[in-house]
Amino acid sequence: MWIFGWKGPSGFSARSTAEEVTQGIDGTGLTAIVTGASSGLGEETTRVFALRGVHVIMAVRNVEAGRNVKEAIIKEIPTAKIDVMELDLSSLESVRKFASDYNSSGLPLNLLVYSSMYAYGQSKLANILHASELARHLKAQGVDITANSLHPGSIVTNLLRHHTIASTVGKYFLKSVQQGASTQCYVALHPQVKGVSGEYFVDNNISNPTSLAKDVELAKKLWDFSLSLTEPK
């Protein structure tokens, strides 16, 4: 939405980077779980969170890759506080083990960032619906926890960087990983978003999703269906 560097109400745009939207923010004392943290948007989110003092738990399928990223970040940011835990989101057994291990660790949980490089079509719609329904449940329970969804934008790949025409066009319409990770860092850490829940963000600003994504009944159906799939047999 806020392309070509045009700033929205937040003061940021599609061109803003994760470091820029968190400039001056002190995340010391916060603990965050970041999924998909061994590459792409998750890796950059982990790096910027660590830069701002957040204790980051990298939830990754490939533990070795996660440890390599951790070492690289600590080399850049010696004060970084990062731990790596195994999590395969395609396996409910792995999810339950991760949750059990995390509960046993005694660590608090202030931020949960479900990060992936791409979110299109039905998966994108499902994420928006789920976050909205979760926000409604949390509000009904009077819990001081917020849930929001976002779209990181289209990210330029290494392959496109070596294609002259695509790279030139992409400079205006595609984002770097640093820019792509900005919205989730903004939503997670910026004081402008404190207390905001059930919203959809694009380019570091609140956006208006499709009418289907705002369908309350569809969100309830998805919620109930998800519960039926994840209940222990």
UniProtKB/TrEMBL annotation:
This is Short-chain dehydrogenase/reductase. The lineage of its organism: Eukaryota, Viridiplantae, Streptophyta, Embryophyta, Tracheophyta. It comes from the Eukaryota. Pfam families: adh_short. InterPro entries: NAD(P)-bd_dom_sf, SDR_fam, TIC32. Coiled coil: none annotated. It comes from Trema orientale (Charcoal tree).
